[in-house]
Design goal:
Layout lengths: L7 H11 L5 H12 L3 H13 L3 E6 L2 E6 L9 H37 L3 H27 L6 H33 L6 H8 L15
Antiparallel strand pairs: 1-2
Helix pairs in contact: 2-3
Keywords: Coiled coil, DNA recombination, Meiosis, Nucleus
InterPro entries: Hop2_WH_dom (IPR010776), LZ3wCH (IPR040661), WH-like_DNA-bd_sf (IPR036388)
GO molecular function, one term: recombinase activator activity
Length: 212
């Protein structure tokens, strides 16, 4: 920006290019970062352009709005406006479609990023094959064993267990009944009685009668 024009050339070109209304604050915010304009310089430049008739100025609610002089642009007929509207609609649809495609590609990228790499998959497959081989060896060892329990033997063990548990419960009940009869005429406590006769209960040995 030359000191001579104080940014008026750039601001004029910007307003003509955008061809929409702006406040001096809008122009300052839009051009300050790229061209280093100061706010006061922008205000003075836009007021000067309006004074020279190069741009138009309107006041709304005590705020000045500036826009390009429309007389410099050629008139646009209805057919051209319709064509522009159709182009805008098509471009909007293209933007929407492209945005949707980008979102889908982002989702696919995240999924791929969280997946195993080819090298990791190969390593994982090797480990799984090694694990499967170990399981097969164990299965073959079990199949080749000669000390399998037959179904008949297993059934006999369960039946014998039920008999022993039933007898255990029966004897415990008889012993309990007999001890209760003695304790009716015994002057001391049950604990003292058990200590004197040297009897250890299931509870003393922390044994629980299994369920049948």
């Amino acid at each position: 920006m030359s000191k001579k024009d104080n940014g008026t050339t750039l601001i004029l070109a910007y307003l003509n290019e955008k061809n929409r209304p702006y406040s001096s604050q809008d122009v300052f915010c839009n051009l300050q970062k790229q061209h280093g304009f100061g706010k006061t310089a922008v205000v003075k430049a836009m007021e000067l352009l309006a004074l020279e008739g190069k741009i138009k100025e309107k006041t709304y609610n005590k705020q000045k709005i500036y826009f390009a002089d429309q007389s410099q642009f050629k008139d646009v007929d209805d057919a051209e406006l319709k064509a522009m509207d159709a182009q805008i609609s098509q471009l909007s649809a293209d933007v929407q479609s492209t945005t949707q495609s980008c979102r889908q590609l982002d989702a696919e990228l995240k999924e791929l990023s969280s997946s195993l790499t080819t090298e990791e998959m190969i390593s994982e497959i090797k480990e799984l094959k090694k694990e499967c081989s170990g399981y097969r060896a164990r299965v073959e060892k079990i199949k080749s064993a000669t000390n399998h329990v037959t179904p008949e033997e297993k059934e006999k063990v369960y039946k014998d267990r039920n008999v022993y548990v039933k007898e255990w419960k029966k004897r415990k009940r008889l012993a309990s009944d007999m001890m209760n009869s003695i304790l009716e005429g015994y002057p001391k406590s049950k604990k003292q009685f058990l200590e004197e006769v040297g009897v250890e209960t299931d509870e003393d040995c922390k044994v629980v009668v299994p369920s049948s």
